[in-house]
């Protein structure tokens, strides 16, 4: 029965990777194969994908996969696979968990930067899972009250890690080669996700808690490393019992140790939103704990500086820096 399920999965996945670009490709896996994995995966297994061709380069895309549990949440994920998947269904890939930025209150998995980075990473032979997660609700003049998303936003990111591990065979990814990456507020969540794999307090929420939280590499693109100095209002409100403790828990610098995963930090020294010092202090702390890391200073780089090659005003080929760092530890 197990062999039948495995063969059926491979055959159906191979069938989805055709040359169509209109989003009308076959299902991620047909519903009959759900007997292999349990009825709770019916929606996940029926997600449709397509081969997307952009500017002469192709990749495989599956949109709106429910990684937080079937029907439980509106936030979903998009899975990108290298186009080689279309011709070799036995191939598996290291995977990057992409966490978008937006001040913990805005942004989307299908935003320009997330999509651009995913496309470049698939060129380098990496799969990418780009996620939406719980966002903070800001107060407005219409009576909407401010509602923080902490710590549920972090629980969502950790659930995504465990989702990748639980269903690695189905998703064609390598569960021991998972990278977490994010930009700005997403960089903050990426750092926390990677640095708190063994923290009992911050691993008590989310789904698939039978899976490990460990990660191979962490990447922060101008991410917040100390919420005491940047963004504290996003982590405490009038209901917070112990603000000092919450801010400590929400600060990535709190968790750096000799066991911290290899970390790439890319930060512009003209950043007016997340001060350059946030990245520099993390780099110094990592060095002090003998953690392998690379700190890339983008001279004149402002917040969310162009990072993808061939973008207007792109100041550096940070994508190649990113790929070189990942290849060093994962290939």
Describe the structure.
The chain is of the alpha/beta class and 331 residues long. It has a single domain (92-330), classed as Rossmann fold (3-Layer(aba) Sandwich), CATH 3.40.50. The protein is built from nine helices and nine strands. Strands 1-2-3-5-4-6-7-8-9 form a nine-stranded mixed beta sheet, with helices on both faces. The longest helix has 15 residues, at 2-16. The chain starts with a helix and ends with a helix. Mean pLDDT is 86; it is low at 1-36.
- Global Rg: 20 Å
Low-confidence stretches: 1-36
What share of residues are in beta strands? 15-25%
Helix content: 25-40%
Number of domains: 1
Q: Roughly what is the average pLDDT, rounded to an integer?
A: 86
Structural class: alpha/beta
| CA-based shape | globular
CATH superfamily: Alpha/Beta hydrolase fold, catalytic domain
**How is the biggest beta sheet arranged?**
9 strands, mixed
Structure, briefly:
The protein has 331 residues and is α/β, with parallel strands linked by helices. It has nine helices and nine strands.
Which properties best describe this structure?
331 residues; alpha/beta; Rossmann fold; 9-stranded mixed sheet; 9 strands; globular
Give the topology, please.
Elements: H1 2-16, H2 42-45, E1 49-54, E2 57-65, E3 77-82, E4 93-99, H3 112-123, E5 127-131, H4 152-166, H5 168-171, E6 173-183, H6 185-195, E7 217-221, H7 243-249, E8 263-268, H8 276-288, E9 293-298, H9 318-330
Helix pairs in contact: 4-6
